[in-house]
Amino acid sequence: MKKYVIGLDFGTLSARALLCDASNGDEIATAASNYAHGVMDRALPTGEPLPHDWALQHPQDYIDALFTIIPSVMRQSGVSPADVIGVGLDTTGCTLLPVASDLTPLCLSEKYRHEKHAWVKLWKHHSTAPYAEKIDEIAHQRGETFLSRYGDKVSSEWLLPKVLETLSEAPEVYHDAAYFIELMDYIVWLLTGELCRSACALGYKAFWSKREGFPSDSFYSALDPRLSKFPEEKFAGKILSTGERAGFLTKEAAEKLGLLPGTPVAIGTLDAHVAAPALSVTEEGQMFAVLGTSGCHMVPGKKELIVPGICGYVEDGIIPGFFGYEAGQSCFGDLLGWYVQNAVPAEYTSAAAAKGMDIHSYLTEKASALRVGESGLLALDWWNGNRSVLADFSLSGLMVGMTLRTRPEEIYRALLESVAFGTRAIVENYRAYGVPVHELIATGGIVHKNPLLMQTLADVLRFPVRIGASREAPALGSAVCAACAAGKENGGYDTLIDASRSMGHVSDLLYTPIEDHSAVYDALYGEYKRLHDLFGRGGVDTMKKLRAIAAHA
User: Fold this and answer.
1) 0.85 exceeded by the pTM?
2) Rounded CA gap, 103 and 213, in Å?
């Protein structure tokens, strides 16, 4: 009798469910639900305006999606609830909820529905930048060793800046919050009634270490005396690694979902990181990348190594038994999207429509006809700052070499090449500090849509690029985790690696380097690195001065 698992993927604007065969990962049914409130960046549902750089969400959207998408895949598939052996999930992060002792979000109470700090702070909530800078400054002053695990830089997107912002600007919310909880842990609680903590989220977003735990009480006290017992007071719950069982479906949840009470539920994990088991990443040196509007580049390693400029590393953070290293590009597909939305002439849009093509496909077709280096253009891919390896979001984009003969497809190709050069900078940084990288396995919408980009990555990196077979990699990865949580005795697997090798899939399509291309790209990359270091490492601060002038204006 076949057994099945369900993977849930809670993204920024919607949630998806995937029901698949636990024996081989074959996808049986999918369903999606958009969040009614989307990203709240202008006003609360009650009408109160939100300041600049705020990004909130409504917890009811997650609840509504959860109890919509699972019943949908069950109806589509006709699978018996008795044959579903597990549920797994991933979410964005750090996406943080302040909750009461019964785990009800504070924003759902009458007292706090008008208070912006009581709502869900989404991963891209960036008003926390001053608090991230304060944490960074104090950690460096104190010589805190944990900071070296995160490239010596604190991101405004992480947990502690969000908490410190709440404490500083709305202390009553901080006081009344029994816990601060990641979205993934909140969903697990909705399903199981168990308060658990994802080691993946705590490691990458909250400075937690498997060996050292949280930073010392004295560090939190240095930030604010009211934080002196922060982890003990606000972080109850057992900490579990990816693929571990968090609990079982409650009777109430099972009835709403159309599943059986007692169905195992895996601990949640971060949406990008959970792609690893979907891509059968089980060995050291296999870099996998989730490429969309931005890019996240992760690689498992056997040794614990300090790597400057990365987003962080966590023991068992991606695959048990490995240190999971993470870096990224804050602008990837967004860069090409910016160009077609703002700078492509109308005649190109009309020509694309006449051929029945979208503008990206049309530009890619014309750019593919160019020889490598023919345009004479070179770009820095920092239209949204630099996440790795400079970790400087005040940097901006650059295009060099334009003339009166420059055509739109040449600019498009130069921008495309720039994100490949940015990826190479990440790979070289990994290797420089001892983390081996020998191939790239990519997933995300853009990898299936733009073969020129994939070939360019192979040519620039000088090693093979493979493509994930599933277009639902996070949901499939969560389903793999569900099969691991179910255990072999129930039709699943005893280890995440075993589950990944059986259920993960990579396409037969393989991009291999073309030597003639790679030789030219080596020369272009040399110039990219000169510009990278000139503008990014303090040689020229023009970008920062321009930003300051713009802010003043």
Assistant:
1) yes
2) 24
